[in-house]
Write a structure and sequence with these properties.
alpha/beta; Rossmann fold; 7-stranded parallel sheet; about 15% strand; globular; EC 1.1.1.378; KR_dom
Length: about 260
């Protein structure tokens, strides 16, 4: 069963990690996909860049894909991405606001530029792209779905994440407010809260075997999450199966949060 058949999906931070999985799974479920990426120089996909690789993977599934480079912290990026998606596919049905960074750093001596960049990408960027997509969805007149990637970190503290956790709490709050603001236009807004997912963001932090074993030991399911675990939930929230889900925040963490209590 294809949950997004004939829909147009926009994914920010879509060339790697969770964003890549969201883009590919959306295509697998029948959607055309517009991908935002920034400074893609990942050579881990052979000779192809990460964004070229994901575009080819989507096209191999029989769906259309476009990719547009841009920093979501720039207000113009969201507007340009929306315009490109409309030009390519004629509409936008779904936004997956996923782009984010997590440069771990101690609180007392965190450089101001690290704090500002984390805030601007994670929270301001989510605001800009959500506003741009919502304006287009309202103009189209047939509703839509916005799913933002928050984090379990919106609910718990982190000693090396005092600049990061507030941004994810902000994304969660943004979706709650947008659910109220945009509900009258048939636009549903929800967030996913990933737990510990194996991605580029935390590869260095989990590179030590003892740290990896510790993290797995806290998760009742006994494993780290895979990006596709998050993508599957995003596809559900974006689909008509979640037609009455609005303003929700769904933990996808293998049971980590309840085990921290």
């Amino acid at each position: 069963m294809k949950l997004l058949e004939g829909k147009s999906v926009v994914v920010t931070g879509g060339s790697r990690g969770i964003g890549r999985a969201i883009a590919v799974e959306s295509a697998r479920h029948g959607a055309d996909v517009a991908i935002n990426y920034y400074r893609d120089n990942d050579a881990s996909y052979g000779k192809k860049s990460a964004v070229d690789s994901v575009v080819e993977e989507i096209e191999a599934l029989g769906r259309r894909a476009i990719a547009l480079e841009g920093n979501v912290a720039d207000p113009q990026t969201g507007a340009e991405l929306v315009d490109a998606a409309v030009q390519a596919f004629g509409k936008i049905d779904v936004l997956a606001s996923n782009a984010g960074i997590c440069p771990f750093h101690a609180f007392l001596d965190i450089p101001l530029d690290v704090f500002q960049r984390t805030m601007e990408v994670n929270l301001h960027g989510a605001f800009y792209v959500t506003q741009a997509a919502a304006r287009q969805m309202k103009a189209q007149g047939h509703g839509g779905a916005i799913v933002a990637t928050s984090s379990i970190s919106a609910l718990v503290g982190g000693g090396m994440q005092a600049h990061y956790t507030p941004t994810k709490a902000g994304v969660h709050s943004l979706m709650q407010s947008c659910a109220v603001s945009l509900g009258p236009y048939g636009i549903r807004c929800n967030s996913v809260m990933p737990g510990t997912i194996a991605t580029d963001l935390n590869a260095d932090d989990l590179s030590a075997p003892e740290k990896l074993a510790y993290m797995k030991g806290r998760i009742p399911l006994g494993r780290l999450g895979d990006p596709v675990d998050i993508a599957n939930v995003v596809v559900f929230l974006a689909s008509d199966m979640a037609a009455y889900v609005n303003g929700a925040a769904l933990l996808v963490d293998g049971g980590l949060f309840v085990n921290l209590q």
